[in-house]
Write a structure and sequence with these properties.
Length: 446
């Protein structure tokens, strides 16, 4: 859920300007602050976390990469823009529920901990969603399946990421973010490779990546310990209190707010760039959309090296040099350069080169920005789920709005069956670069 999102509102869930905190609230915040130094986590936690996030993205993003495009082409031939409506609707639903799910996770009290029950529940819903999409007889049912996918797999992913906020010390955040960033970027590539031979069978097309996701998330849930949460205190909140959890004072947490804005701009540009990937390649290469699965799979296989260099290089170096912002900016700049190259060329060699540059930028930005988020996340010990849910708006707003905007951009200056992919990619490039520039204003992290 993604991914995807994995990490969105229009007005209501956005940070609202509340009054400055009183002295008493600052005392409470200080008492609730997490330990200055969390203990290092072991290799078991790190590697099962990496595998679990790899599994979620394979199950969840593979449909976005190719499977949904094929189903839309089957159910509505010639109407590429429908894909944007479906993905936007799913992201809009998750956008409105993310903070609620985060607060619920924070307040869950079970012998299995706070996060694992949501991973299990989300995984079950995620599998159901894949079956619904595979067997959907209409666009309406296909859209409903995508909403379930966003909600189910997104719940798994968000609780995995909240777990890193609960457990990781500062010295390991870049390393783990680099590894998980690499894993989440290459997972859809492997998903496309696994399904390239079954594009004619909708059930296998969706379920093969889903089975991998279930297996890897199950490993984390069963083999990584989480403390019993039943003894933790829990305040009583009603509906009004819950709704207040959707808001926070940006002035109280300025660096968190700046990171939120930079992430929003980046993911808006990224979503504009990736929503119509299959249709874009088909248009530029003059082939049917069903024929680009192999091309995208081959390109993705080569792109593994670029993503590895960006995510692992940026993540590990940001820990070693104790600098985050410069790597976030570099990631945005690389992406913008690659998108512009793709926007103004049409031959396969240029598309491959541009895509590899974009992959390196995505890997670097997403990995280091995740570490930066953990550095500036407020109230980690008590409200990590809530603030991770609010952070999720920075990805789910773009995921809900950008596909709709992209569908409109494609029609600007276009004639007949032609779509304006050049303009779409230029706008996407400007947004990801701006996302990298914004984080330079963060003061508490270098």
């Amino acid at each position: 859920m993604t991914t995807p999102s994995n990490d969105d509102p229009l007005v209501t869930p956005l940070p609202s300007p509340l009054s400055a905190p009183a002295a008493d609230s600052l005392v409470v915040e200080e008492l609730a602050a997490p330990p200055a130094d969390l203990p290092d986590v072991g290799a078991r936690y790190i590697w099962f976390m990496v595998l679990a996030q790899f599994g979620v993205f394979m199950a969840f993003i593979t449909p976005l990469a190719i499977s949904l495009s094929i189903r839309v082409a089957d159910l509505a031939p010639g109407h590429d823009e429908v894909l944007g409506y479906i993905t936007g609707a799913g992201a809009l639903f998750v956008m409105l529920t993310a903070p609620f799910m985060g607060v619920w996770s924070d307040r869950t009290r079970t012998r299995f901990g706070r996060r694992r029950p949501f991973m299990v529940g989300g995984m079950v819903m995620g599998v159901v969603s894949l079956v619904v999409m595979a067997l959907a007889p209409s666009l309406l049912v296909l859209g409903a399946g995508w909403v379930l996918a966003q909600w189910g797999w997104g719940t798994v992913l968000s609780n995995l990421q909240i777990s890193t906020a609960d457990r990781l010390p500062e010295s390991q955040r870049g390393k783990v973010a680099g590894l998980t960033g690499f894993a989440t970027q290459v997972a859809p590539v492997f998903g496309v490779i696994l399904t390239v031979g079954v594009t004619g069978d909708p059930l296998l097309l969706f379920l093969i990546p889903g089975v991998v996701g279930v297996a890897l998330v199950t490993l984390f849930v069963t083999l990584v310990h989480e403390d019993d949460s039943r003894a933790l205190p829990r305040e009583r909140i009603g509906l009004t209190g819950l709704l207040k959890k959707y808001f926070y004072n940006p002035a109280q947490y300025p660096d968190f707010s700046i990171n939120w804005l930079g992430r929003f701009l980046f993911y808006f540009g990224l979503t504009l760039n990736t929503t119509f990937t299959a249709f874009f390649f088909a248009s530029r290469l003059g082939v049917a959309v069903t024929e680009v699965a192999g091309i995208i799979a081959a390109l993705g296989g080569v792109g593994v090296l670029a993503v590895t260099a960006g995510a692992l290089g940026g993540g590990f170096l940001s820990d070693r040099l104790r600098r985050r912002k410069i790597f976030v900016l570099l990631g945005g700049a690389l992406m913008a350069a690659g998108m512009l190259l793709m926007a103004f060329t049409g031959d396969l060699a240029s598309l491959i080169t541009g895509s590899l540059i974009v992959s390196a930028g995505i890997g670097m930005f997403s990995a280091v920005d995740q570490a930066l988020l953990l550095d500036v996340l407020p109230e980690k010990s008590t409200d990590a789920g809530r603030f991770m849910g609010i952070t999720g708006f920075a990805t789910s707003i773009p995921q809900s709005v950008a596909p709709l905007v992209a569908s409109g951009i494609l029609l600007l200056g276009a004639g007949g069956a032609e779509k304006n992919y050049t303009l779409l990619y230029v706008i996407a490039a400007a947004l990801v670069l701006l996302g990298g520039l914004v984080v330079l204003r963060i003061r508490s992290v270098r």
